Amino acid sequence: MKRFLKSRNILVIATGLAISGAIRMPVEQKLTEDYRERRIAAPKVSVETWNQMGQTGLAGTFGGLRSVMASILSLEAQDHFSNQEWYELKQDYDVITSLDPYNSFYWSHGGWHLAYNAASWARNRHDLKPIQRETMEREYLEAGDAFYREGLRQIPDAYHLWGELGSLWSNRFKRPDYERALEAYKMAASSGKSRIYERRYVYLLAQIPGREIEGYFEARKLLEQDPSHLSLPSFRAILYTLWTNPSLPLSEGRPGILEIFRSEEEAYRNLYNYRLRTEEEGYFQGSIDDTLRILADKLDVPPDWIPFLVNSRYRIPKDFRSKRNVLPHSRSGYPYFQGGE
Q1: Which of 1.20.1420, 1.10.860, 1.20.272, 1.25.40 is the CATH number of 66-337?
Q2: Average pLDDT over residues 178-199
Q3: Residue 236's closest CA among 194, 296, 185, 288?
């Protein structure tokens, strides 16, 4: 009799728990999905990710230690990077970002490994034919691009991932795709969280033949929104150079030197250094050579710092002053300006 009563009680309790669970399950599932949509709870782990994780990883995931497991796996991924095992590294970061999808560091690091490290490794595989190297390099570049974009799909407000995409596709040592770079910088700038991407958008336009006028109007717009952009030497030099474009509408007035630069010495230094970038990075040169000639004559600049007379790759230092003594550079043998007020 006691055994019967005990069995009946167990059955009643089990039935009650089953009914309670059946009632709560839809509510909890809906709540979980709501949390996932709001990125409070992590998304479901895909079947592929389950298959790639070992027993330890599975135990950690079930135990609610997803971020901890992601951190441990990122250390294992470092070994694959050291051994140049790119396929395994990609698999590692697929699992890592499935476990901790709202950590932008992993998306940034995984994209960097694929688009930079793996792609550079492919480019330097001299045991392969050139067409094979190029194909492999492009595959890794696209894999990195896709990885960054998946990170942005998971974390739409991770604007710096757009910035990293812009840097990737504007990198002249890779395989530049300026349209993709412009799109990325524009998306990064639209966040309104960092003005550097607004300037990079303008700088890139100044590097693309035929887009200089567009770059000029974008630079003017930035200046109207925030005059503090003029505190940056690169912005000053690019704005002035774009202003010298003879293709600009006649309605656009040409500013004087001191409307952009704080002194003629600063103008010479900034434009001289910018001229080096036009040769190294393909920036629009405009008619700054005319300005440099006028300033060099007016400031009595020594021949060592006149780009038309000496083919120097050194930039003029910040302590440049006109009509000062020229001392030998301690390491290179090239001169630099020195003098107090």
Answers
A1: 1.25.40
A2: 95
A3: 288
